[in-house]
Specification:
The chain is α/β, with parallel strands linked by helices and 303 residues long. It contains eleven helices and 14 strands. The protein has helices spanning 14-24, 84-89, 93-101, 109-117, 151-158, 179-188, 216-232, 241-250, 260-265, 267-270, 281-286, and strands spanning 2-7, 32-35, 50-53, 56-58, 71-74, 78-80, 104-106, 122-124, 144-147, 165-168, 195-196, 235-238, 254-257, 277-279. The strands form four sheets. The protein has a five-stranded parallel beta sheet with strand order 5-3-1-2-11, covered by helices on one side. Strand 7, helix 4 (109-117) and strand 8 form a beta-alpha-beta unit. The longest helix has 17 residues, at 216-232. The chain is globular, with a radius of gyration of 20 Å.
Length: 303
C-alpha cells in the first residue's frame, strides 16, 4: 500500500504544519504529498490508490470536493468551519461521499454536531497534535514564549516576570521565530524528494511570499524545531490552537488568551477549554484572572 500525507502546501500558518507533522507519525512510510486544497485532482500514474488520513481544516474550496477516487481516506480529526460554501459542498454528492466513509472522526464537537444533523455518522475524535510525544533530548531553556498574543498582553506579562520572554508568530507572512528553531531546521532538513499531487496547470491563487523553503522535509524539520522550543519553555502563552494543544501533549504549561467570543463560540477552541488554562485579555489585564507567570500552574491531564 502507498501512503500519502495531506498537506496545506500554500499555508500561511505553521499550525497546519504542526498538525500534519503529527499525522505523518501514524504512517508506515510516506510516498506522496497531497495538496489539501486540490484533493479532487490527485492521481497516480500507475493507477494505484493511496491511503491518507483525512485530518485538518477542509472545504475552503467547495468546488474541489470530494476527494479523488485515487485516495483511500481515513477520516480522523476532520474539521469543517461555518460558511455558505460548506452548505453548498455538502449538498448531494459531497455529503454522500462523507456518508460512504463514515463514521467521521471530528477535531471538534461543532463539526461532529453539524455532520450528525445531516445524517452523517460522526464522533469527536480530538486533534492529532495531542498525540505528539515529548522529545527525550530537550534541555529546558526556561524562557516564557508568547505566541501571537496582543501587544498589550505582551507588555503586561513583561511587568509580571523577570524571566526572558521570546515572541513567536505562527503566521508565515510575518514570521517571528527564535534562532534555535531556524538553525534546527537548517541542520535537520533531509532534503528528500517526495512525489506530490498532480495539480491543475492553472492555479486558483499564487504562492504567498513565505519565509520557509517550501519543501516538506524542511517544513517538517522546522516544525520539530519549534515543538522542541515549546517543550523547553517554562510557559507558553498563546491564542493559537496549534500552540496550545501541542503544549498539552509535550507537558509544557500553557495559557490560552483569547476573546470571549472565540472561547465560547468557536468550537475549534471551546472543545478543548476543559483541558486548558484560559482567559480573556480583558480579565488578565484587569486582574480578574490571576496567574503566576514565574510559577505557572500545571496543565490539566484530562486530554
Amino acid at each position: 500500500m502507498k501512503y500519502g500525507l495531506i498537506v496545506h502546501i500554500k499555508t500561511q500558518n505553521i499550525g497546519d504544519d504542526i498538525q500534519e507533522y503529527a499525522m505523518e507519525k501514524f504512517l508506515p512510510h510516506l510516498d506522496y504529498l497531497i495538496d489539501r486544497e486540490h484533493l479532487d485532482s490527485f492521481y497516480t500514474v500507475a493507477g494505484e490508490k493511496v491511503a491518507a488520513l483525512l485530518g485538518g481544516w477542509h472545504l475552503w474550496k467547495a468546488i474541489n470536493w470530494p476527494p479523488s477516487p485515487f485516495l483511500k481516506c481515513l477520516p480522523i480529526s476532520f474539521h469543517l468551519t461555518n460558511g455558505a460554501y460548506r452548505t453548498i459542498t455538502l449538498t448531494d454528492y459531497g455529503e454522500e461521499w462523507l456518508k460512504n466513509i463514515a463514521p467521521i472522526g471530528c477535531r471538534d464537537e461543532g463539526t461532529a454536531i453539524s455532520l450528525i444533523s445531516r445524517g452523517v455518522a460522526a464522533y469527536f475524535s480530538g486533534c492529532f497534535t495531542l498525540t505528539i510525544k515529548p522529545f527525550n533530548d530537550v534541555e529546558p531553556h526556561g524562557k516564557i514564549v508568547l505566541a501571537d498574543v496582543p501587544k498589550e498582553v505582551v507588555d503586561f506579562i513583561k511587568t509580571r516576570t523577570k524571566k526572558e520572554i521570546v515572541l513567536v508568530s505562527h503566521d508565515y507572512k510575518s514570521p517571528s521565530m527564535p534562532k534555535e528553531v531556524v538553525d534546527f531546521a537548517e541542520i535537520h532538513d533531509t532534503k528528500e524528494i517526495i512525489l506530490t499531487s498532480h495539480y491543475p496547470e492553472i492555479r486558483d491563487e499564487s504562492y504567498p511570499k513565505n519565509f520557509y523553503k517550501g519543501n516538506w522535509s524542511y517544513r517538517r524539520a522546522f516544525t520539530e524545531g519549534l515543538l522542541r522550543f515549546y517543550q523547553g519553555a517554562s510557559l507558553v502563552v498563546t491564542n493559537r490552537l496549534h500552540a496550545s494543544l501541542p503544549c498539552l501533549a509535550l507537558g509544557t504549561p500553557v495559557l490560552m488568551v483569547n476573546s470571549e467570543q472565540v472561547l465560547l463560540n468557536d468550537h475549534r477552541i471551546s472543545s478543548y477549554l476543559p483541558y486548558l488554562n484560559h482567559t480573556t485579555p480583558e480579565n488578565l489585564l484587569s486582574g480578574k484572572y490571576a496567574f503566576n507567570f514565574d510559577a505557572p500552574r500545571a496543565n490539566s491531564r484530562g486530554h
